Amino acid sequence: MQFVSIVVMKLSEFVSILEEIAPPEEALDFDQGRIGLVLDRGGDVGRVAVSLDPTDFVLREAGRIGADLLITHHTLIFDPITRLSQTLSDSLKIALLNDLSLYVMHTNFDCASGGINDVLAEILGLRDVEACGIGRTGLIKPCELDCFAGLVVDRLDTHVRWVGDGLVERVMVVGGSGFDSEYIDMA
């Protein structure tokens, strides 16, 4: 988790800026209603915390540093609430006791201009990048598949599994919700 102090502004003004960066209407259908300001305490924002997930640890840490707003990629609440589980109840209690608002930027940030997939494409050195659904396609200097896998390992500090060999020239990146077979067909 990272935090940064900003000029104090109204929460609604800060939310407007976030929604210019990644408009909520750009989210995939399954994400509608799960993004944006999912926990609104109102008031001013002077300190913001940012994290991938709103875990209890992150919520406590955001409270400890005095954050007014926590921005996460994944949401705390996935479905309409008909019953509060102990886990969700505990998380909401931590957020409320720490007077935190929670803003979620998920698939709308994946596909936003300058968002997750554009950054992935840039890190991997793709050229002539084009939007392809939520993902991005682009060209690389032609190289063997094992060489490209090594580049991914180095640039993303991750593990990669691959099958086969061959020359790689065009690459598609889909961060997050790329499990749809449609993207495999596009690639």
Describe this structure in words.
- With 187 residues, the chain is an alpha/beta fold.
- The chain has two domains: 2-106, NIF3 (NGG1p interacting factor 3)-like (Udp-n-acetylmuramoylalanyl-d-glutamate--2,6- Diaminopimelate Ligase, Chain: A, domain 1, 3-Layer(aba) Sandwich), CATH 3.40.1390.30; 113-186, Udp-n-acetylmuramoylalanyl-d-glutamate--2,6- Diaminopimelate Ligase, Chain: A, domain 1 (3-Layer(aba) Sandwich).
- The chain has seven helices and eight strands; from the N terminus they run βαββαβαβααββαβα.
- The strands form two sheets. The protein has a five-stranded mixed sheet with strand order 1-3-4-5-2, sandwiched between helices. Strands 6-7-8 form a three-stranded antiparallel sheet.
- Helix 2 runs parallel beside helix 3 (86-97).
- The model has no long low-confidence stretch (mean pLDDT 88).
Helix content: 25-40%
Number of strands: 8
Spatial strand order of the main sheet: 1-3-4-5-2
The CATH topology of the largest domain: Udp-n-acetylmuramoylalanyl-d-glutamate--2,6- Diaminopimelate Ligase, Chain: A, domain 1
Give the biggest sheet: 5 strands, mixed
The number of helical segments is 7
What is the top-level CATH class of the largest domain?
Alpha Beta
Tally the structural domains: 2
What does the average pLDDT come to? 88
Low-confidence runs of at least 5 consecutive residues = none
CATH architecture of the largest domain: 3-Layer(aba) Sandwich
Shape: elongated
Structural class: alpha/beta
The amount of beta strand, in percent, is 25-35%
- Radius of gyration from CA coordinates: 19 Å
